[in-house]
Amino acid sequence: MTAWRMVNRVEISRIFRSSNGDTIIMIVTFMATLFLPLEFAVLAGMLVSFAQYLVQSATPRVWPVVPDDNFRYFLPEEERSACPQLGMIAIEGSLYFGAVHHVENAIRLNSRQHPDQYLLLLRLHLVDKCDVSGIHMLEAVVKRYRDRNGDVYVVGARPQVVDMMEASGFIEYIGRENLLSRENAVSHLFHNILEKNICRYHCNVRVFAECQPMIKSSDISDSTTGIELKQHQVDYCSAEELQRVIGTESGQALIFDVREKDEYKRIHIPGASNLPITYLMKGIEGVAKESSVYLVCRSGRRSLRAADMMKTLGYKNVKVLGGGMLGWEAVGYKIVFRTEGSI
Asked: How much of the chain is in helix, strand and coil states, percent to nearest 5?
């Protein structure tokens, strides 16, 4: 009777409702008291609790985030729209030897889910500790993005984590300018780093507060082109076909990169001429209607629109590079890109 009165049924019910891990610890401890001496039962509960801590610390929470509708807080991305250029990932936990593999895999998964994103913002305000293995993982992430002509930025790192970054040389590696403050991180990246032409022509969503006043191509009617667009059957070419054209028809086929000038300067296909879609009508005035024309953009979207415009004007031999520059880079063909210090 005394033992029964000592059972706190309200607290047991609360544990069942609130935590699976604590529920397992409670059940193991209870079963151990039935079959083992009391001191061993308590020890069994401690060991299970310690094992649970190790599992949790070895698998920090890693999740992509986007601003909420009022642009005040960050929420899990889940079904919300994400920026096609900038990925944002929050990490909660410690970056140490036993956890970095899990964190790096989560970042790789997000990269596969958003292959267009060439910039990454790591929110580290919930990371309390970082060891040398954590630094090596961060360096590997930075290298992977920079190999794709992108970059990584860090925001909200705690003082002890910044001290580790400083001592290990990571800050020198990533660049002090890539450590951003929480107050203006997104604003800095939007106004100074993101490609505005991708925002205008490639993206139909407005993820950030800074996106709201921007005029996008989806907001502009076809009347601004000066012609009435019609739906035409558009032919596509693969990266392999365009590579053969570059090698065998040099000087005969015309390759037009319809992205904006700064996008073209940053990276383009050898032999392609820059002819932004906004100037397409004027730029093709001297092009013969029977010419073989290949159109290139970042992903194929703007090229498709440009091809429709040209076919409306009577150009017959127009092809769009399937997958755009993204597909060309994925195959590994030669590209021309702007180096540091070039204009």
From this structure: 50, 15, 35
Task: Indicate if the alpha-carbon torsion angle 32, 7, 50, 122 is positive or negative.
Answer: positive
CATH number of the domain located at residue range(s) 61-211 in this protein: 3.30.750.24
Q: Two tokens at 184?
A: 């203006």
Helix residue ranges, H only, the chain: 2-5, 9-18, 20-35, 38-58, 100-113, 132-147, 159-168, 170-174, 185-192, 196-201, 239-248, 261-266, 280-283, 301-312, 324-331
Q: 37: helix, coil or strand?
A: coil
Please tell me the distance from the alpha carbon of residue 65 to that of residue 92, in angstroms, as a whole number.
13
Using a cut of 0.70, tell me whether the model's pTM lies above it.
no
CATH architecture of 222-337: 3-Layer(aba) Sandwich (3.40)
- Helix/strand/coil for 298: coil
The domain limits of the chain are 2-57, 61-211, 222-337
The helix or strand, by DSSP H or E, that contains position 87, with its residue range, turns out to be strand 86-95
The CB density around residue 197, as the number of other CB atoms within 10 Å, is 20
Angle subtended by helix axes 20-35 and 38-58, to nearest 10: 160
pLDDT tens series, the chain, 343 aa:
455 666 666 777 776 777 676 777 777 777 777 777 877 777 777 776 766 666 666 689 999 999 998 888 899 998 888 999 999 999 999 998 888 999 999 999 999 999 889 999 999 999 999 999 999 999 999 999 998 889 999 999 999 999 999 999 999 999 999 999 988 899 999 989 998 777 876 777 889 988 877 766 655 444 444 444 455 677 899 999 999 988 886 567 899 999 888 888 888 999 899 998 878 878 888 899 899 999 998 888 788 888 888 888 889 899 999 888 888 988 888 888 764 443 3
